[in-house]
Amino acid sequence: MTVFRLMRNIHLGLGLGFGLGALMFAVSSLAFIYGYLLPEDSAEESARTVLIPAERASSGRALALELMRDHGLKGDLRAVEESAGEIRFRIVRPGSNADIVYSADSGEARIQTRRLGFTQMLRQIHTVHGFWHDHLPSNVWAGLSVLGSIGLILLGLTGIYLWFGMHKERVVGGVLLGVGMVYAIAALALTRMS
To answer: 57: number of CA atoms within 13 Å, CB side?
Structure first.
């Protein structure tokens, strides 16, 4: 097998393998950028109160872990505020947010849950970043994002190799590559300026 044929097969495999992930990222980008043009998603809200003894709610993290373990909440802990016998925080995962207010005096944790619509969920998926989430699907998504990024870089490199190997296509490919680079650099510069 020649190097050119091997690169073509790698390029085709990467394109098929990571094309769906790139498409999902593109759709979530459109929902994020042009969401104001889409009809407003309806969100379902619900509220409940659970009793948790003060000794099991020594901190926001301990209370959040208790709620995740025994009361069905799932997600990442965010925005913890502790003051005057009260703990406030949020548990977030794509498609759902839960705001919790805990009173040490009464031992009551008020949970306000908001289930988001499809467009809002796409926006949250688009902005999930980093590893070591409390929510396993978010860690899986982070891993897939890293693999997708590496795959797309390899797709681009193999594409450049294939383009360069086709002598008749070099001029057209060079123009397209140059236009793409100018667009990418201009977009990056504009985002840094605003």
So the answer is: 26
The Cβ of residue 171 has, within 10 Å, a number of other Cβ atoms equal to 9
Q: Are 135 and 41 in contact (CB under 8 A)?
A: no
Contact 159, 11 (CB under 8 A): yes
Q: For 129-155, how does the pLDDT look when each residue is reduced to its tens digit (9 = 90+)?
A: 777 777 777 778 778 888 888 888 888
Q: Is 163 exposed, middle or buried, given 0-12, 13-18 or 19+ CB atoms closer than 10 A?
A: middle
For the chain, what are the domain ranges?
Answer: 3-37+137-193, 44-116
Q: What is the CA radius of gyration of the chain?
A: 24
Residues 93, 76: contact at Cβ < 8 Å? yes
pLDDT tens for 68-102 read 888 888 888 787 888 888 888 888 888 888 898 88
Q: Answer left, alpha or beta for residue 165, where phi above 0 means left and psi between -120 and 50 means alpha.
A: alpha
Of 71, 133, 76, 134, whose CA–CA distance to 102 is shortest? 71
pTM of the model: 0.62
Question: Domain 44-116: which CATH class?
Answer: alpha beta
Q: How far apart are CA 3 and CA 47, in angstroms?
A: 61
